[in-house]
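Box S2. Input/output pair 1.
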Amino acid sequence: MIDRPYTTVLIVPTGIGAAMGGYAGDAIPIARAMAQISDRLITHPNVLNGAQLYWPIPNALYVEGYALDRFAKGDWGLQSVHQNRVGLILDQAIEPELRVRHLQAADAVKATLGLAVTDYIITDAPLKVELRTAPSGASWGTIGNPDSLLRAAEQLITQGGAQAIAVVARFPDDVDSLVLDNYRHGQGVDPLAGAEAVISHLIVRQFGIPAAHAPALKPLPLDPTISPRAAAEELGYTFLPCVLVGLSHAPQFIIPSDHSQLPSDGIWNNQVDAVVIPYTACGSSAILSFSQEKSLIIAVEENQTQLNVTPESLGIKVIKVHSYLEALGVLVAHRGRISLDALRPNLSSINCLKICD
């Protein structure tokens, strides 16, 4: 018997204050561990982006959030690539010195890592990013000039042949001091994350190619007491390197014109064996879609968030575990076709069903 690839999806929604995955790259160890027991690990930039830090995971697919939702629904497939040509959009609002820092980061990635970072373009108007906070405490945001962003992306694609788009937008420096201080010390929500998602969603939805975002900010004052989980965001002048690395091998999207006859190649939602999510963040479009498939859904209680959307409140059947360590054990058993009941000390006999009249 030939086994098909065992495929795991790891989701930690952005901007919801996840205890693990709510900071820059602090979910990478979880992704690395899950990749060890999966043939394919599908996850998203919020999990793999670590500012100037990153880790190459050969069997991980870097899929932007909007595309992941479409994949989970079965509308889009994923096609692995050898390498993408990555184009770079810089917000006109970025100050000249800060712009140079980001261009140097792109050149460094090209020279030091050998990635195909090709052209850059400056938007024809400031993008005007504004930050918001929902009543739940989750962060979100708006972009004042989305048309300028889309015009820049279109030019990179049509004139530069870009196959993936990295965006650097100037974000406000006047973030609420208490919110920012709490975040730097390991509490609360990333105030930037929700707005970042809006930017990448726009490009992926419009052009159907991979995209991800890195904010441009002034360096923060030195603070020797910050949380280790927030430390990656204190390094250097830019968060761009991890985005360029992720996009360089991000899968392209298969977008069929006729959904009644899906292509046989690529990866599709019905090939996903397991999905791992925080227990209190089960309301995303992707999770609702996966719950309609045969995928095993594992909900991790230890990864607390600002939300309280539990699987029980939505009628979603899950395996509830305390930690990601326990989730890894469930994945090992599931991949090995071993019943979880067989790994518990109290094992009941099989049930007898009565024949219906």
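Box S3. Input/output pair 2.
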Amino acid sequence: MAETFTSATDGPDDDAPFRSRLTFDLDVDICIVGAGLAGLTVALEAARLGASVAVLEGRYVGWNASGHQLGTVMPGYGLPIGELIERVGIEDARELWALSKEGADYVRAAANEEAMPGIALTEGALEVSNVDAGDTLISRLQVLSEDFETEVEGWQIDRVRDQLGTARYFHGIYYPKAFQIDGRKYIQGLAEQAKRAGARIFEDTPVVSIDPSGIRKRIVTPSARLRASHIVLAGNIHLGAPLRRLSETLLPVWRYGAVTEPLGERLGEVIRFRGSVSDSDGVDHFRIVGGDRLMWASPETTWDARPRRFGSAIQRRIATVFPRIGKVQIADVFGGAVGLTVHGMPQIGQLRKGLWVASGFGRQGLNTSAMAGQLIARSILWGDERWRLFSPFELVWAGGTTGRVAGHLIGMWGRGSSAAAGALARYREGARARERIREARLAEANRQAGTGTRPSPRRPPPGAPRPPGGPRPVRPQLPEPVEMQDPAPVALASQEREKIRDGSM
């Protein structure tokens, strides 16, 4: 089934139900600020558990990054697994990882065709390396499968390149239980499920101020006031003036993507893998959608810009990675802002009694926002204490304008170093291939030399006198030089190898 895509500059989906602005005072158990993936998951789960819930959204459901992403769902966090272990220890790292797997299971259970028609779920995700990192691959596979009980497969270079027709990628890690969905359908489906469960969603209702003191917290909007026992801040970087100090703990990053025009059979001839693909450096993320279109996310900025500006950049990037596809036409470009934390983990937990945060999901994945929503709802209503696993990842100021400039420069350096490392890896691979060819030519030349005709040893002419003192001693005969059919390959290979040993190549 084909997916639908909407530009980030568009308004609400035409088929999305209208959710009115809040124009009257309201008293609820839980007030959620932000109707993104995390906020709607909190609303859905809390309403299912019997709480009265109101969701306040300044614009409309799914207007930002939550409604404009590639829809990949797999376990894990933005923080590399080795660094996670170093930060919290192996036992807590296992529990955190188990929570991320629960989040993926939650999305799979919610995103089915019966509950969300047109969700277009496809299986499998592949993470590929830009460099030849076989040893690192083996070590990571062992950690994931043995220590974190995650089903993974290691793919060798030949298999990766068989599925992805490009020489830019080397090894890969395949997650067979990962999957991808239509992100727009998913967030609208979440909103509908939350509404059916009893949650009330109010669009075009920005929050003017919040007073978190006391048992009943107070929230003020332009046209109404609310009182709630619990407030959940799920507005990411868009919390605005009422909670500027919290939003400034996130580095805003705008991620842009595009969908190509139909590419026909040529796409399947080059890219055979039907799941999502991401590189180990986080530069590119892509998958096939709608049968013969390519959805590709690549550029990032720390400043807001019109998504259409990046269409040509994505077009060039596709041609660079997959030159066999040729030039593609871009049908749509989309984008959205995410919040990155300094430590690379999401912000999940209780800031003070009755005031909760679910934010910082940039580069985390759909599974993490789903897990956070479920965990906070259960923490409020059941007393689930597992949110404390995220306590080591405290709120850290992201640096303001200076941090955004530094983030932009670091991003540029990261993309540049990734490109340089990939180019060096491909050069080394080519050098090894050329060396194997030279070795093969040398072996063939030696084989041909070994099958040549050796000259017979010289014998004295008949009647020649023998040396005095008995029989003439037999001298060992050394083989004379043998003429090879083609001595050039031997000389060339010898010269090339001497240059390599001397470091001149």
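Caption for Box S3: The longest strand covers residues 330-340. The chain has three domains: 1-117+181-250+342-398, 122-179+251-340, 399-448+487-505.
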